[in-house]
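Worked example

This section walks through a single chain of length 141. The input is the sequence exactly as stored; nothing has been trimmed or padded.
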Amino acid sequence: MLEEFKKFAMRGNVVDLAVGVIIGAAFGSIVTSLVADIIMPIVGAVTGGLDFSNYFMALSKSVTAFSLADAKKQGAVLAWGNFLTIVINFLIIAWVLFMVIRGLNRLIKKEADQPAKPAEPPRQEVLLQEIRDILAKKLAA
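Given that input, the structure is written out below as tokens.
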């Protein structure tokens, strides 16, 4: 059973998937930072200080706070601004992945379109050709 599990775990697809998940998580952190630290502040500056992450709708009358963190402590809130930020984050991740995959596909297509370099003949053939050429020179002389 352990041997069977080892075969399953070391199969190429499983290892590739594990690497993809790890790189995807790291890439997700980069894009999250890109959205939170670069894109959303620009959107906020363009829209006059708009910060989606703090927008919410109180679902309880006991919620009187103006920040999302404080409002969550007071009661139930619908954090639609945070949701909107996550949707924007997702769209950016999807767009960047689309562009990366598109670029990779173009590279792969370029490589496939290039004619393959003919394989060098085996060493035996090269030696036979040299012998043939030497014999032809001796017969011609």
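What to look for: The radius of gyration is 31 Å.
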